[in-house]
Amino acid sequence: MSGTQASARALIALPDDIINTDAATITAVSTPSPVVAMTFDDGPHPTNTPRLLDMLRERGIRATFYLIGNRVVQYPEIARRIAEEGHEIGNHSYTHPFLDRLSASTVTSEIDRTTDAIFQVTGRPPVTFRPPYGAFTRSQRTGLHATRALPTILWSVDPQDWRRPGASVVANRILQHTHQGSIVLSHDIHRGTIDAMPQTLDGLTARGLQFVTISQIIGWPLWQSRTFRRVVQTG
Ligand SMILES: [Zn+2]
Fold it and tell me: Is the pTM of this model over 0.70?
């Protein structure tokens, strides 16, 4: 086998060291309720995110948006709208690097700067983290949970929408693989993903599934209802 083949990996993939879902790493939940969590990564996007927000509002659906810190700074009004319309915002790093290749201090900076950007715009910090490309080692996940109380939220349904297979393929993949307790990964920066959402959302609803945020699906209070005390660090 060539070295290229040996080292090849999907661009976006679950870490290969997942044994079980634990407090620091969540891919899906086991629940008696017919709930699913839709998650949208890499925004805010200036046109696709507002279009998705319109679709969600029409249907009374809450979702979770894993925002990139530098895009929050670029599009603060869209980030604010996401929060104001009842959705949850999570941390997706500041510049979207492969974090598993970076030093601990750089990783911490990527995450802290993003938390701060989201706090500045929405008045509350994110309470969960999703690593770009899923590239985050077990020790990184455990460390982040210990030092920042941020669980790493991965996914159980991946339609590979970033490959732009077309809206109907994205919808069909999600509809085929999503069930009670699923966490669905997709990206609101791609027009085709947004085009897939009416069929996806209405199809899941028709099967009796209800949409909740990540905090809700893991049994935490709704992100919007949390209160925060700003911690001032000394020294
Ligand atoms: Zn991403």
Answer: yes
